[in-house]
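Re: Re: C-alpha cell formats

Sure, here are both.
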Amino acid sequence: MPLPQSLEQALQAHFERTRSYFTALGESSPEAIILGGGYGRGEGGIAIDSAGNPAFFNDLDYFIFTDSPGNVRLQQAVHQWEEEESALLGIDVEGKCLPCSDLQATPNSMMFYDLVMAHTPVMGPPDYLAAYHPLAQADRIAAIEATRLLWNRGSGLFFAKADLEMGKRLSVVHRNQAKAKLAFGDALLTIRGQYRPYVRERQIRLQAETDIDARIVELHREGTEFKLNPTVTPSLATLQQTQLLLTEIWEACYLEVESTRLGHCFRTADEYIHYRGKLFPEIPQWRNYLLAIRDQLKRGGHLSPIFDYPRGALQRSLLSLLAEPADLQQAGRLLGTKLANMQIAAQHYTQWWGYYS
C-alpha cells in the first residue's frame, strides 16, 4: 500500500539523512543499512493526526550490518541517530548492529524469513541479502516461531486485561488486541508452512485453508486493516467484549500450535499448565538448574518448574493469568511469589518477561 505523498517525501528525506550520517563515520561506517518491519515491506501503517493529516504509526526497525558490531563509535552514532530521527519523524526509530554472519545462524526464524524476503535497502549494495534468498523458505520456519509469536501476543492480551481492569491505557489495549487478531492466523499458517511476508497475501492464504475457524480469518482481516490504517480506540465496554473473544481464540490457537510443536495433544489449558514434560526439551536440564540458581542469587527468586527453561514457566503462567477468572494462585506458584491481584501479577510477569522474552 503506497504511502501518501507527504509521508513518502518524509521517508525519502529520512533515508538521505541516514546515508549521509553513517557515511560520514568513515572507517566505522556500516556495510549496509536495511529497513525491515512494516515500512520496509511497504506495509507501514498510515494514521491520521489531530489536524486530519496522514502520519506515521509504526516504528522504523533497522538492521545495521557491520563486521564490528561492538565498535564504540558506531554504537554511539546509532544511539544519537535514533534519538534525532525519532524526534523528527514522531515515531521510534531503532537500529540493531549485527554482522551479516548472524543471519546464517537463524535461517529457521520468522525474523530471518521476513527480512530476507521483504525489505528496503537504505545504504550499501541493493542486493546485500540476495545470497540468503535460497534459505528463506516458509516451510523451514520452525514451529517454535509460531509459539513465540502467540506467547508475545498473548502477553499483550494479559497486559490489556490488567489495563482494562483499571480502565486505563485504552489505546494501548486497542493496539495489543489488533496485534493478537493478526497473530492467530499468522501462527496457524506458520505451522502449515504457508506463512508469507506480506500481510494481505497471508489473508488470502488463510481464506484458502478449509480447516481454520472462520472467526480467525475474519479477525485476521480486521487486524490487517488496523495494521495499514489504524482506527480510533473504541469504548471500554467494546474493548472488554473483544478481550473475551480474543482470549478464547488465543487459547485454542496456542494449544494447537504447542500440540503440533511438542507432539503431545493438549486439549485444555489445565493439561498444558500441569504437563509433566519439558516445554523446551532441546535445552539441557543442567542448564535450567543453573539458570534457577543464578536467578535466585541475582534476582531474589526463580521460576518453576526448575527442570525446564524459565520461559516455560512464563508460558504456563500466561494461561493461568488469561483464564476467567485468573488463577492467581497457580500463576504465583509458577512465578515463585504470591499474587494478590492482577496489577501485582502484571508487575511480576513483566519483570520475568523482560528477562526471558
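Second one below.
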Amino acid sequence: MTDVVELRSDTFTLPTPAMLEAAAQAPLGDDVYGEDPTVAQLEHLAAELLGKEAACLMPSGTMANLTATLVHCPRGGKAIVGRESDIYVYEAGGASVCGGVVYEPLPNRPDGTIDPADIEQACAVDCNDPQFARPSMISLETPQNRCGGVPLSLPYLAEIAGLARRYGVALHLDGARLFNAATALRVTPAEIAAVADTVQVCLSKGLCAPIGSVLAGDARAISAARRVRKMLGGGMRQAGVVAACGIVALTKMTGRLADDHANAARLAAGLAVLPGITLSPPATNMVFFRVHDDRYTTCSFISAARDRGVRVEELGHGRIRAVTHADVSAAAVDRAIQVFTELLAGPRTGAGEEAR
C-alpha cells in the first residue's frame, strides 16, 4: 500500500537525501583508534549543543543509557528510575544483566515526573548498612514517552538535581527526544541538559538519522563511557558514515520539530470531536487516545485502522499512541482523521472494552 500513514513511531523516519549524500562523502577513519574525523566532528557538535565537555557516539539510545548506568553504578549499586520510563520498561533489564545494578522503579505521575519525596526516600538509605543497595544514579526521561510525550520542566529538573547532589548520587537524563522537549519548552537543549551528569540524545526518531545516539557529559564520564561502549560491543570502525547523518540531524532537522508538534495538535483536534474518543492535548509529537466503542477492542481498532492504511499502536494500559514525524504531512494527518471518522461512524452500543 503506497498511501500508508505511519504513526506507530518516529523511529520509522527515513534518512533524508542530504544525509545519504553526507554519508557517501564523509571522511573516514578507524573510530576505535579515535581516528574518524567525521565522528570527532559529530561528538564535538553534540557536546557543544548540550553544553557538556565531551560526547561519545553510540549505536543506540539503549546502549547509551546502559553505558551511562554502568559508568555511574558499581555492581550492587542502585539506579532509581521511573516505573513508566523507557530505561526500565523497554531496555531488557540491561543494567541488571550486564552490570549487576539494582533498579528501583518509582511511580511516575501523570505529568511524567516522579515525586521528589519518593526519590529522596529511595536515596536516604544507610549506606553503612551492608543490607542495602547503595543509591548511585537517578534517571529521568524527557519527554516522558509513556506519560504522553510530556517534557519535564526546568524547575523540576533543577529540584531533582539538587536532591541528587545532596545525596552524592549521579543524575542521568534519558533525552531520546530531548530536542522535542526543547522545542515544546522553548529553551535550548543545553538548558535542559545543564543539571545532568550525563545525557543521551537519539539522532534517529524525529531527527531522521538511520542509526545512532550520543552520550554527553564531563570528560571523565565520557572517557569511562568509551571503555564501557567497547565492552558492550559498541566500538565501531569507519563510523563516520553514521556520524555524517547525525551531523545533518543536529544541524538541519531540529528546527523543523515544531511542524511535527503542530501536526500532532492537528491530529488531536480531529480526534477530539469523534464519538467514543478520549484524549489529552499533546505536548510534543505524540497523541495518546482511547477508544470507547463496543464494536472494538483496542487491538481490533488498531487492526481496522491498519487495514485502511493508518498504522498506530497500543502503548500500555489500553492506550493508543500516534506519533507525528518528518514523513507525516498535514495531508497525511487529515487522511488518518478521515479513517478514524469512518471507523467510528454509525451507532454505538456502549463504552467499549473498559465497560466489559
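The first helix runs from residue 17 to 25. Residues 5-10+256-355 form a domain with the Aspartate Aminotransferase, domain 1 fold (CATH 3.90.1150.10).
- S.
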